[in-house]
Amino acid sequence: MGCSWFSCRKSGGKPSEVDGEIAAIDNVKIYKYKEIRQATDDFNSLNKIGEGGFGSVYKGNLKDGKIAAIKVLSAESRQGVREFLTEINVISEIQHDNLVKLYGCCVEGNHRILVYNYLENNSLDKTLLAGGYTRSGILFDWSTRANICVGIAKGLAFLHEEVRPHIIHRDIKASNILLDKDLSPKISDFGLARLMPPNMTHVSTRVAGTIGYLAPEYAVRGQLTRKADIYSFGVLLMEIVSGRSNKNTRLPTEYQYLLERAWELFERNELVDLVDSGLNGVFDAEEACRYLKIGLLCTQDSPKLRPTMSTVVRLLTGEKDIDYKKISRPGLISDFMDMKVRGPVETKPEEVNRHSYTNPSSSSNASSNSGTRDNSNAYSSGASSAYAGNTFSSTI
């Protein structure tokens, strides 16, 4: 790739260095700011399709006839500039049917803009998890949901196992899964992605991601491996099958956390009760329960027990059978006694105080998570992401 993650971080967002980083990356079309203004009708509010912590997203018509999603980075956001560089660095070199496609960028003056292919059916959190057919008009029947789950899994398997160096997305969640006109899923927002250097088992880093999708070992110790993405995928898989967010405070206390509920039903051999009632009973019960069990496999407390993404694909498609004896209790957000979510600092929507993880074995208290959605679009970097400033050394 043209620049490494580490050099992107060191650039610190200064315009001259940003321009240098961009110039070093091949396969990236550079758009003139004038063309972007024309494409969006001078950033007309009627063309705005999303807004997040690091800027706004507009639908635009490019000169070559392509319809694009144009992500405009806020000039005040240093963190956003780093994510901007990372996103270009990661996504410019790779293509897959289940990843968004980067058309190019604009780095004219102080403007930092990413131009992506436009996807007609928004994100999973704005459609399926916001009321499904009733509110979005999209019919998420069982076949559609199964195809979405398999597509996301294939995209992640590509990032984890086929790309060199391997890529850890770090923010797999419903709002970062976009749907095209055929409801094929596309993984988006690579602003938090990390490259996994060869011959390394993990990277020790500050926590970045979204509460509710964070793997326990990563949230507590900053130990980042591909298994953190697999945990996030497991949560997302259960959301797709159940049609609900990983936390819903409108439900009775014992039903609020999706993983807790799934484990309770699994122990009682009643997982079918978790399947979305919006399907009106029209679904393959055996397959739906298998998907939920795969979600439990992916969210096990120990990273070593979670399957690889290529194995997950085989499990989802029925090419491999599940060993139910290997399913153990998931790592649950409510196991962290003093998790606290602070208010915004600078442009960061949420911040996790990692010093507050004082008793991982307790399940007596838990705070809010990403079940409360913001108004961001999946093209908008940084929405609902959780950060912790300290880097913890780790040993595996």
Protein model, in words:
- By secondary structure, the chain is of the alpha+beta class.
- The chain is 29% helix and 14% strand.
- The protein has a six-stranded mixed sheet, with helices on both faces. A four-stranded mixed sheet has the order 12-16-15-14, with no helix packed on it.
- Helix 6 packs antiparallel against helix 8 and helix 8 packs antiparallel against helix 10 (285-298).
- It is globular.
- The chain starts with a helix and ends in a 9-residue tail after the last strand.
- One of its GO terms (molecular function) is protein serine/threonine kinase activity.
Please tag this protein with its features.
Protein kinase domain-containing protein, nucleotide-binding, Transferase(Phosphotransferase), domain 1, 11 helices, kinase, 16 strands, single chain, 4-stranded mixed beta sheet, 396 residues, 2 domains, Phosphorylase Kinase, domain 1, serine/threonine-protein kinase, globular, alpha+beta, disordered N terminus
